[in-house]
Amino acid sequence: MAMSKVIVVDWGTSHLRAYLCQSLANGELALLDKRLALGIAKCDGRFEEEIFSCIEPWLVSFGNIRVVLAGQVGSSIGWKETHYLPCPVAPVEVSKACLSFKKRGVDFSIVPGVSCNLDDDIHDVMRGEELQVLGWLSVKPEHQKGEYLICLPGTHTKWVLVVDGEIILFKTAMTGELFDLLNNQSVLIQEPSTAFDEESFIKGVKYTLKSELGSFSHGVFSVRSKQLFGQLTQQQASSYLSGLLIGSDVRAAINASQWNVSNVSIIGAPHLSDCFSKALALQGVGSEKYDVEQLTLLGFSMINKFSYLSQTEDL
Amino acid sequence: MAMSKVIVVDWGTSHLRAYLCQSLANGELALLDKRLALGIAKCDGRFEEEIFSCIEPWLVSFGNIRVVLAGQVGSSIGWKETHYLPCPVAPVEVSKACLSFKKRGVDFSIVPGVSCNLDDDIHDVMRGEELQVLGWLSVKPEHQKGEYLICLPGTHTKWVLVVDGEIILFKTAMTGELFDLLNNQSVLIQEPSTAFDEESFIKGVKYTLKSELGSFSHGVFSVRSKQLFGQLTQQQASSYLSGLLIGSDVRAAINASQWNVSNVSIIGAPHLSDCFSKALALQGVGSEKYDVEQLTLLGFSMINKFSYLSQTEDL
Predict the structure, then answer these.
(1) CATH superfamily, region B172-291
(2) Yes or no: is domain A5-142 CATH 3.30.420.300?
(3) Interface predicted TM-score (ipTM) over 0.90
(4) A257 to chain B: which residues are within 8 Å by CB?
């Protein structure tokens, strides 16, 4: 397997990101090329067609290459369902429990998800983020010891408590999906704007800080009333809504009973990470930002390294 | 005008409800017939076509009839924009400030909305609900004196504080619209179910009571995780989601700083009113239910009576 090529794929709800990599002698991955395709929720159940049309050019150029996938692809609404490893769990454990199968002569492996049991019979689940946590653990040696809170903003924001290299528990917030629904399909926004207006974003965050207990569904109507009363332009409304939602997510996270937060590691796309960092700062919490793509590839490297090592041991 | 016919229309975001009435000698309205059509958000801007196709059969049978409209029809996304009367205001005042115009030879009047100014520059607005509050005020003489909290559940739930016959202030919650978006278009529900499951609804309400500060966007993911872990069937998931949303709305309302609640008057459709009544009861608050259609017609009666009286005085 040494020096062979491998395709690693982060296939989430909204996006598919495929990376062609060279597997180096020690099992680490070096990025060669990248391609994008549709997320699980967007490709209308045509999973096999979507992945093959995405990786086809690489198969044509380089012949058969094995594919490792992580994310919603393994969920009950994905391509092939894989189970969940229960917390507490060291993220590298996922490499031992992949679901492997062959399609059109290509070897596929789907990484399992991770689950945890919160208070009063509330479970939570993640798929894909465990890989980024795995990457985060290997980016600095000190991450292997001590207690950390990691925020992974996205369609479903995950807040992950890591202690001594293990995921102890985590919480999902629907922040990104709520933003998409409310920004594109509600009475609140007539014309969604993609231009970010920082002042309006901060106004939204600050409003949630001052708002009363559990008043999300009450407070969010201010997106419309502020436009009616000339306090927000149509162009500013999306940024204000984003501030309300991210502010509310961050407030809930720092008030959660499961951890004490003084600093948060944020793993996400640059703009979204900035937004979470600003909302945390407004609540007096510091943060460090990490590049999500870099950590995803590092996570896949760790899985590749581990399976490379275990295959070597098998010999 | 005495003994003439009048058409009154409650034209909201989701539904248009038109009533053909007989205006009695004292100005009160007696219901003759009812027709339904599409709400403001659903008729693609073709407002004139929608209202005329709805009332056409009555015009054909009885000749020209004047039409009085209330609700989102007068909003910035409606047919003709009317202004807002600022709180505190006696709801009967709206009858003095109608927008009147003629289309295809028919006289139309649109009732204005009501606005209020909450803390820190947050305004709120209502259109249509002021009519039901007007009906509620006239249904029992004691409603004219004292302090009352009225809940009007719907696409946008309104919580209205009435003191000595005047609307003092009110708050909007996006509960119904959030339910529609999350039930029909989110990852939480695969197949929306219209069968109500009371146990799951109560489970949802109770979860919000126990949940932490501002954790709506965190808690709502339990709709999905409970299905994944066999704690909810697909059929029960919609009822549980409804419980989460209504529970969260009710919790925010009874914790609002603007009023002290011991009893709530609920004006809404029977099933929705039951849901709010149950959620209030779980938080130790009693409620009385009123039929929304009856109060709407009573409200229009009051407006008709008032304009009948003022016309008589003009003679």
Answers:
(1) 2-keto-3-deoxy-galactonokinase, C-terminal domain (3.30.420.310)
(2) yes
(3) no
(4) 212
